[in-house]
Design a protein that fits this description.
Structural class: alpha/beta
Largest sheet: 7 strands, parallel
Mean pLDDT: 94
Order of helices and strands: EHEEHEHEHEEHEEEHEEHEHHH
Radius of gyration: 19 Å
Helix content: 25-40%
Low-confidence stretches: none
Oligomer: single chain
Shape: globular
Strand content: 15-25%
């Protein structure tokens, strides 16, 4: 059995879709559906069972205490469940949800001699002044700009200090976009938001730059298509001898202007961008440049090409957003 926490969410449901492509269906999905629309991500997927995250935590606590809770042997756990809001201000909540929960789960998985692959984040790199190298020796030097990034950083550090990075895999996801993200509301990618803005007004709003070295819309990010991101996660499932922390990106930095132009092109419309002021509350926490160094994962044996934003956005907009499709609907 494979367990996917956050399995109804954006990257989690995409991973279940990727496993289904390989014929894997003995999957336990763990999530918290609440009043969100992410249940729609599950409709076209094949899995054995679904459990709410609080019940799952009770199950693993009972298992640790000696009860025989899980009927099937656990082969691997993809821990993708977390609060992913970069604007979340409740530090106590983030520590409990993103750090304490992760520690508890990691120890449970290792006691079962199963594979543990978890989501870290490129937000741990902060302003990028120290680079974007997935070098475990320099983890202590990183300074995230927001509490979300720090909640991911302290789990990376906990894993390192407890000697676990030789046994588990941490994935530093960059800016991921693609199908199954509609439920994320304000945390959706600019691509999904842009399609709505274009349909409503014929234009897209982007933040002005508040640094003189960057023109408006020329801030750069490493944008990775979700299909590529979960393919990299699947690579580590198939190679249990490879462990440590790895970047999940493309190794290319593209501008927001490039991104939005690709959306207009995919929709067959003329590019029309309006630049608006960035909220004061975001200006000191905003990453102006990210570019994941992908050398480590490539040297580990991952060889699939990374989608350009033009190709990824074309697929996303034309085959999913405009058709109101979810992953699995297209098959």
């Amino acid at each position: 059995m494979i367990i996917v926490t956050g399995g109804a969410g954006f990257i989690g449901s995409a991973l279940v879709w990727r496993l289904n492509q390989e014929g894997v269906e003995n999957i336990l999905i763990v999530d918290h559906l609440g009043e969100t629309e992410k249940w729609k991500n599950l409709r076209a997927l094949n899995f054995a069972d679904y459990v709410e995250k609080d019940l799952f935590m009770n199950m693993i606590t009972s298992d640790i205490e000696g009860e025989d809770v899980f009927d099937d042997e656990i082969e691997a756990v993809f821990h993708l469940g977390a609060c992913s809001s970069t604007t979340e201000k409740d530090a106590t909540y983030l520590i409990k949800n993103n750090f304490e929960y992760s520690k508890h789960l990691a120890m449970f998985v290792l006691e079962h001699d199963a594979r543990f692959i978890y989501a870290s984040s490129a937000a741990t790199y902060g302003d990028g002044s120290l680079g974007y190298n997935d070098d475990e020796e320099t983890l202590e030097t990183l300074r995230p700009l927001n509490m979300y990034g720090y909640s991911k950083q302290i789990f990376d550090l906990w894993a390192k200090r407890n000697g676990l990075l030789d046994e588990i895999v941490g994935l530093k996801f960059s800016n991921v976009y693609g199908p199954n993200e509609a439920h994320k509301n304000d945390m959706r990618s600019v691509i999904h938001k842009a399609c709505g803005q274009i349909n409503e007004s014929g234009k897209v709003n982007l933040f002005k730059s508040h640094k003189k070295e960057y023109a408006d819309g020329e801030q750069k990010r490493d944008f990775v298509y979700v299909k590529d991101a979960v393919d990299m996660a699947y690579f580590f499932y198939k190679h249990p001898d490879i462990n440590g922390i790895f970047n999940v990106g493309t190794g290319k930095a593209r501008t927001w202007n490039d991104l939005v132009k690709a959306v207009f092109d995919a929709m067959g419309k003329k590019c029309n961008i309006e630049y608006i002021d960035m909220p004061e509350s975001l200006r000191e926490k905003y990453q102006y440049f990210t570019k994941s160094n992908m050398k480590k994962i490539c040297e580990a044996g991952y060889s699939a090409p990374f989608s350009s934003i033009e190709d990824g956005i074309q697929d996303y907009v034309c085959n999913y957003i405009q058709k109101n499709n979810f992953l699995g609907d297209e098959e």
